[in-house]
Amino acid sequence: MKYGLVLVALLLAGCSSASEDIIASGEEQSNLFYHNIDAVDAQDFIIAHPDAIVMDVRTADEFSAGHVAGAINIDYHGDGFRDTLKKLDKDAHYILHCKSGNRSGKSVAIMKELDFKHVTHMDGGFDAWKAAELPVIQ
């Protein structure tokens, strides 16, 4: 019986939820700065967190051809990209994407240098969003 209780306690201890993992100490949270999620999970996250800011770092022409609803557009190749980022709220949660993930991946690195606290990267970018047949604003 004694061993059975120990086994049950060990099993229960190993069953922590993802939300418990996200609520961590300050040192652990610094490791949680950057997350990769797929397009479907990104849509779910956007719906569940309406305060999150969807940032599209494609060109203005790419953005106007179609984008995620509510997204802001800051062109990675535009003049003053880094200066524009510096003006944003560093405590807000951002979900970044570009066309395929290259520019947004580089943008995440810049945001980390600038001390942004919460940045999520959408793997595969807008191409993955469209491939998943998620809603597009044109």
Word description of this protein:
The chain is 46% helix and 14% strand. It is an alpha/beta fold and 138 residues long. It is globular and about 35 Å long. The chain has a 5-stranded parallel beta sheet. The N terminus is likely disordered. It has a single domain, classed as Rhodanese-like domain (Oxidized Rhodanese, domain 1, 3-Layer(aba) Sandwich), CATH 3.40.250.10.
Structure summarized in a few sentences:
The protein is an alpha/beta fold.
Quaternary organisation of the protein chains: single chain
What is the CATH level 1 assignment? Alpha Beta
The succession of helices and strands, N to C, reads HHHEHEHEHEHEH
Instruction: Estimate nothing, just give the exact number of structural domains.
Output: 1
* Total strands: 5
How many strands, which pairing sense, and closed or not: the largest β-sheet?
A: 5 strands, parallel
The CA-CA distance between the termini, in Å, is 64 Å
In angstroms, what is the radius of gyration? 18 Å
CATH superfamily name? Answer: Rhodanese-like domain
Strand order in the sheet with the most strands: 1-5-4-2-3
How many helix segments? 8
Q: What is the CATH architecture annotation? A: 3-Layer(aba) Sandwich
Structural class call reads alpha/beta
Which residues form runs of ≥5 with pLDDT under 50?
1-31
Give the averaged pLDDT, no decimals.
82
What would you call the shape? globular
Strand content: 5-15%
What is the CATH topology assignment?
Oxidized Rhodanese, domain 1
